[in-house]
Amino acid sequence: MELVCYGLNHRSAPVEVRERFAVATSKLGEHALSLREMEGIEEAVVLSTCNRTEFYLAGSSAAEAAEALRQQLGAGGQDHWYEMHRMEAAQHLCEVASGLDSMVLGETEIFGQLKTAYRHAHEAGATGGVLNRLFQRAFGVGKKVRTETSIQEGATSVAGTAVELAEKIFGRLDGCRVIVIGAGETSRQTAQALVSRGASTVFVTNRSHDRAVELAEELGGRAVRFEEWQSVLAGVDVVISSTAAPHHVVQPFHVEAVRRVRKFRPLFLIDIAVPRDIDPAVGGIEEVYLYDIDTLDQLARDARGRRERQIAECRELITRELEKLNLPGT
Amino acid sequence: MDRWALIIATLLAAIGGVNGMLSLRHGHRSGATVYWMVATLVAQLVFLSVRGEARAACPLMGLGEILVFLAWSLTVFYLLVGTTYRLSLLGVFSTPVVVVLQLVALIPGVLESNPQRVAATDAWRETHAAMSVLGYGALALAAVAAVMFLVLNQQLKSHHLGSGLFKNLPPARELLVSLRRLLWLGWVMLSVGVVAGVRMPRTEGSEAHLVAAMGVWVAYAVLLGVLQLRGITGKRLSMWTVLLFVVSLSVFASV
C-alpha cells in the first residue's frame, strides 16, 4: 500500500494554471471515484479550492498511478505540480488541515473545504481504510494545532501591527476617526487596514492637495488642506503621519492645544516617516500613544519570529500525531 | 462553621487567582476563573447567612463582617460586570483584593467569635450599612479596573508588548468605560448609603464615621464631576480611583 499526494497550490502555480484544474464541489465525489478506477489506486480524495487542487491517492502502486494521472491531466507546465509520497504526503495533508499551507497562515476555511472534499469522496465510496484513518487524524490534528498553538496571532507587517495596536487601545474600531498626514504608500496601507476594521471617518492631508483628494477618494474619506489639518486633530483618534518633511510636522503644542477639547481621550499616533514627522516629546503627553516606524517594524519582526517558532512547533506536533497513527502506506 | 466558610471562600478565591495568573504566564486567559469566583461567592453566602442568622439582622456589625460583606460585594460586581467578553481578566485582578479583605477578617480578634443577636434593628441603619458596603464593592472593582488600565497604559507607553498579560488585557478604552460605569454605580449606591446614614439614629462615634463617609462621597463626586465636565486622562482617573478607594477604607477603620 502506498500513499501519494499529487497537486498544485498558490505557491507552485499562478491563478491561470490553478483555474484550469479546479474541480466543482458537486463533482468532487465523482472525480474521486473515477480516480479509483485507475489501475493501482484503491482509494482517492480530490480537494479543490481557489488556492489548490490536490489528489490524495492510496493503492498498491499509487506512484505509478500518479504518473498516469499526470499524463492524463496533460499537465501543461509540469513545473507547477508537486508529488509527495508516504509520510511526506500525510504530513502535507495535516499541514493543509491546520492552515499551515494556506495563503493566510492558520485560516480556518480550508478545514471546512477539506471536510467537504473528504465527505464527497466518502459518500461516493472512493475512500477506504487508509484514507479514512488519515483524514480523520488530519482533522484531529487541525483542531489541535488551532487550539494548542497561536499561529494566527501577531501581525507581521507594519500596517497590521498598527491596526492591532489601535484595537488594543480602542477595542472595536467602529466609529474611530483617522487622519492621514502625507499620502505615502505605507500610510495608505495602514489607513486602508484601519478602514477594513471599521474606522468610520478618514481625513487625508498632503502638501499636494490633489494627491490628498485622490487618496481620500480611494479610502472613502475627506481631503483636508495641509494648512488646516490641526483643526481636525481635536476630533480624531488615530493620526498616521508619513510626509517627506525634513522637520517635525506634529509637535507637542499641536496636541496640547486640543487636549481640553478632546477631554483627554486616548490618541494613537503612528509615525511612519523617515525622518520622523512627530516630535518624540509628543509621546510624553499622558493620553498619547506614539509609535514610530522602527518600533512598529521591530514589533512586526518579533511577531514573524514568534510565528516561525509556532510553525516549527506545529510541524513537530503533526509528526508526533502521525507517528502515533502508524498508518500503512506511510 | 462561619469561620470555616470564610476560610474556604478565601482558599477558593486564592486558587482562582493563582490559576488565572498561571494561565496568563502561558499567554492565555483561564476560563475557569469565573467558576472559582462563583464557588467563592457560594462560600461567602454561607458565611453571611450563618452570621445573619446569628445576628437576626444584616451581618454588618464590626470590621470583620464589613470586610467580608465588601469582598462579597466585589465578587458579585465582578460576576455581573467582569464576565462579559474581554473583561474576564478582571477576575484575576479582583481575586487578590478578595483574598486580602478576607484574610484581614480572619485575623484573630477582627471577627467576633460569638456574634450577638441585635436587640433592635433600624431600617435606616441597615440601609446605610448595606448600600454603603455594596457601593464600596463597586468602587473596589473600579479600583481593580483602574489598576488594569495602569498596567496596560504603562505597557503601551513603553512599547513592552510581548507579555501574555498584555495580550490578554482588555482594550484601554473598554477598561475606561467600565471604570467610569463602576464609579457612577458605586457613587449612586454610596449616596443612598449616606442619605440613610444621615437619617439613622446617632450613637457614640457615629458622627465621626458619618463625616468620614461624607468626605469620601464628596471626593468621588468631585472626581466624577471633573470627569464629566472637564475630562481627565485615563492615567489620572485610574490613579485617583485607586487612591480614593484606599483612602475610603479608612472609613471602615473608623467604624
From TrEMBL, chain A:
EC number assigned by the record: 1.2.1.70
Active site: 50 (nucleophile)
Enzyme class: oxidoreductase
Known catalytic reactions: (S)-4-amino-5-oxopentanoate + tRNA(Glu) + NADP(+) = L-glutamyl-tRNA(Glu) + NADPH + H(+)
Site positions (Important for activity): 92
Residues binding NADP(+), per UniProt: 182-187
Positions bound to substrate: 49-52, 102, 107-109, 113
Entry text on domains: Possesses an unusual extended V-shaped dimeric structure with each monomer consisting of three distinct domains arranged along a curved 'spinal' alpha-helix. The N-terminal catalytic domain specifically recognizes the glutamate moiety of the substrate. The second domain is the NADPH-binding domain, and the third C-terminal domain is responsible for dimerization.
Name listed for the protein in its UniProt record: Glutamyl-tRNA reductase
Originating organism: Haloferula luteola
Gene that this polypeptide is encoded by: hemA
UniProtKB/TrEMBL annotation, chain B:
Keyword Transmembrane in record: yes
Transmembrane segments: 30-48, 60-81, 87-111, 132-152, 182-198, 210-231, 237-254
Domain of life from the UniProt record: Bacteria
Keyword presence, Iron-sulfur: no
Keywords assigned: Membrane, Transmembrane, Transmembrane helix
Gene Ontology biological process terms from the UniProt entry: cytochrome complex assembly
Domain Cytochrome c assembly protein: 63-249
MF term (GO), any: heme binding
InterPro entries in the record: Cyt_c_assembly, YpjD/HemX
Protein name (database record): ABC-type uncharacterized transport system permease subunit
Organism: Haloferula luteola
